[in-house]
Amino acid sequence: MSTPASEYTPRRANWLASSNATAGGLDVDPEALDDFDSIEEIAWDSAPLTYHAPVVETADSKEIAVAVDGVSMVYRVRSSTEYLKAENRFARMVKQVTGSGWAEIPALDEVSFVVNRGESVGVIGTNGSGKSTLMKLLTGKVRPTTGEVYATSTPVMLGVNAALVRTISGRENIKLGCLAMGLSPEQAAEKFDMIVEISGLHDALDMPLKAYSSGMASRLQFAIATAVDPDILLIDEALNTGDAQFRARTKQRLDEVRSKAGCVFLVSHSLGTIKQMCTRVIWIEQGRLLADGDPEWVCSQYEEYTSHKSNDRKRSAQIVYDRTLLKLAPLQLEFSEGTRPTRAG
Ligand SMILES: Nc1ncnc2c1ncn2[C@@H]1O[C@H](COP(=O)(O)OP(=O)(O)OP(=O)(O)O)[C@@H](O)[C@H]1O
C-alpha cells in the first residue's frame, strides 16, 4: 500500500557532521546531547525537511474492510469564556448574556488509511490524541466534520459498559446480556460456555454480581460483549481490566473474529497488549495520523516520544514526532467504479 519512504537524515546528525570541523577533534557522542535544549535549537534549524507526495491507492473491494478517507473532526462545545473572543463589545455582551459562545475543539485532522480483512489494528496515542473519536467515527454513529468513513459491514464497538444487573447472578447476567444484544434464547444458550470460558469466572457464576470485584465485573461485561459475531470489531481499552490469562483467552477470541475474514481495532495504552494482539499499529497524535505499520517499530517510536515528553524534553519529542511523520507516506484513496463500500453507519 505504501511507497517506501525516502531515508530521513536526523537533523542532529547533520549538525554534528558540520560541527565536527569546529569541534576541535573532540569526540562528541550525539546521544549524550539529547538533554540540551540549546543544542537542539541549533540542530533544529540546520536541515531541511522533505515531504512525500501522496500515494494514490485504489481500494480493492475484495480485500477491503474499512476505508477512512481524509477524515477530520472538530467538536463544537458551548464555552463560558468564549464570549471574551467576540469581535466587538456589543457581540461580547450578547454572548455573555446568552452564554452562546462556542468553542471548537479539533480532534482529528485529515486522517486516511485502509484496513483489509484479517487485520488486527492497534490504535495508540497519548491522552486526548483522538483515538476514541476515531472509534466513534468508525461505528458511523458520529459523522466526521469532513471526509468519509467506509466499511463493508457495520463496525461494532465492544465496550465494558453493557449494563449488568447487580442483584442477579453472573449466570443470569450472561443470559440477560445476550438477549439484550439481540440474540435469541437458543443463540444465547449456544454462546453461554464460550462467555464463561472467556470471563474465567467459572467458580463465581452463581454469586450475585454485587459480590464481584470491579475487575471481575469488567471481565464478565467484556465476555458477554464478545458473544456477538461482528465482522468488524472495535475495542476501546476494555482489555486493560484483565490479567494475563484473561488476555490470552481474549486474544483467542479476537483471532477467531479475524479468521472469519473480519478485522479488529484495538485502542489501548498498554503497548504490551498492542504488540501481543495486533498485526499492525496506527499511532494518532494531536489528531494526526503519525505512523501506520509494524507494531514493534511504531511502538518503539511511541515509547521514545512519550519518554521525551514525560521528561519535558519538548524538542527531542518534536524531533521523534517529525522523524516518524516523515516515514509515513500520505494516502490518497481512489475507488474504482462500483467498488466503493457503503458509508459506515
Ligand atoms: N464529546 C466531546 N465534546 C467535545 N470535545 C471532545 C469530545 N470528545 C472528545 N473531545 C476532545 O477531542 C480530543 C480527542 O479526544 P479523544 O477522546 O478522542 O482522545 P483519546 O485519544 O481517546 O484520549 P484518551 O486516551 O484520554 O482516552 C480531546 O481534545 C478531547 O477533549
Automatic annotation (TrEMBL):
Q: Which InterPro entries match?
A: AAA+_ATPase, ABC_transporter-like_ATP-bd, ABC_transporter-like_CS, ABC_transpr_TagH-like, Bact_Polysacc_Export_ATP-bd, P-loop_NTPase
Key word ATP-binding present in the record? Answer: yes
Tell me which domain of life the UniProt entry assigns to the organism this sequence originates from. Answer: Bacteria
Keywords, sorted A to Z: ATP-binding, Nucleotide-binding, Transport
- Is Nucleotide-binding given among the entry's keywords? yes
Q: Name one GO molecular function term.
A: ATP binding
Cross-referenced PROSITE patterns: ABC_TRANSPORTER_1 (PS00211), ABC_TRANSPORTER_2 (PS50893)
> What are the residue boundaries of the ABC transporter domain, all occurrences included?
84-311
The record's listing under SUPFAM superfamilies reads: P-loop containing nucleoside triphosphate hydrolases
Q: Which SMART domains match?
A: AAA (SM00382)
Q: Which family does it belong to?
A: Belongs to the ABC transporter superfamily.
* Protein's name in the database: ABC transporter ATP-binding protein
Native species of this protein? Nesterenkonia rhizosphaerae
Q: What is the lineage of its organism?
A: Bacteria, Bacillati, Actinomycetota, Actinomycetes, Micrococcales
